[in-house]
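Action item from last week, closing it out:
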Amino acid sequence: MLIYNTLTKKKEEFIPKNSPNVTMYVCGPTIYDYFHIGNARSFVMSDIVRRYLEYKNFDVKFVMNLTDVDDKLIKKANEENVPVEQVAEKYADAFFEDIEKLGIKKATVYPKATEHMQDIVDLIKNLVDTDYAYNVDGNVFYNVNKFKGYGKLSGKNIDDLESGARIEINEEKKNPLDFSLWKKAKPNEPAWESPWGKGRPGWHIECSAMSMKHLGETIDIHAGGNDLIFPHHENEIAQSEACCTNEFVKYWIHFGFLNLNQEKMSKSLGNFFTAREILKEHSANSIRYLFSQTHYSGPLNFSKELLESSEKGLEKIYNLVQRIENIKPSMADNLNTFENERYLFAFESAMDDNFNTPQALASIYDFIRDFNKFLNKNDQVAKNDIIKAKDFLTKTLTDVLGIVLFSTEEKGESKEDDLIKLLIEIRQKAKLDKNYSLADEIRNKLSELGITLADSKEGTTYKISK
């Protein structure tokens, strides 16, 4: 199993430090607003990475932090004239609601910065005591010149780096690249006690402290968006390795940008859709399918048209699922059998090669095409073939890619199912009466409600988008 490591700039065999246990840390949201669909890509793709590791029988301890003290949070609280913790609680709840809708598995731990203040202070104190950090009147900065490996993740040369828009200019710093570990308290801002006076932590130190607290000094996988490589992840390495002298992360995974009209989607640019907005119009399956069509490391140009195209692409999958569910297996002897082992091998080979989801999807579509041909040629199908087909689709699409296919509920038990079936009967009668306009209207109206009809020789089936 190979993973492209941003640190070494090459694919490397994945060897956890304590197999089969795997430690994985993912940078979560700053909970001051609803997260946008670009953030959702990082969350979904890290979920797929985690799901595949678990599929390969690794025991994954998955940590995603929530930044609940930050300039953006303070600004939002001041705008709404409410306490910072109230803003954080509101958007933390929204975050959990939205990732559940996206089918993202719960993390092992969701640490918050405010719950780890002593851990953060202790880490900063260690850096100050070893001269990797310095205090200027209650503001503590990390001295990047002290750390010899600074720039090794991003590939930036410290001598060539200049202060710019992303680097806070402050005359208190020894070097413009030095970054804040502890910020002196300002009026009407949340603050905590520390050896340097009341204040609050900088963003970068929070992740180092929380990952060490829950995963140890060296973690197997650290993941996040490409925009976090510098300065955030670069600074995490500098802090963590200066403090502990151990390798901080074995494998760095970074997800490509989600673009809108060929421009990076971001709140600062104002060109974004929230995941919550998109989920009102499109299913989680279509979002996960769209993200899986592009390799996690590459850019993806997002549009609602692409999502609609994804929904159409999913129809081929749904149609086969419905066909399988409607087949009455035969107990006859000497039936032709369908071998699906090679499709599973192709799927796993693709995922083993740096989580190549586009190639993995291609293997699934090869299976769908060939299994449909098999069904068309054989009037009778063995129960074992149906079981193996469902198992293949469940393992690949649901367990790994997180696309829900087979309902665990029995159809026909709810009023919703009964009403849909009634409309299907009315539509069928309309077609027999050659009232095609009514038949089309029923199909179109159901489609608008997220209910897809599929006509086949076995009859009409339906799929409700999740």
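Closing note: Residues 409-413 have pLDDT under 50 and may be disordered.
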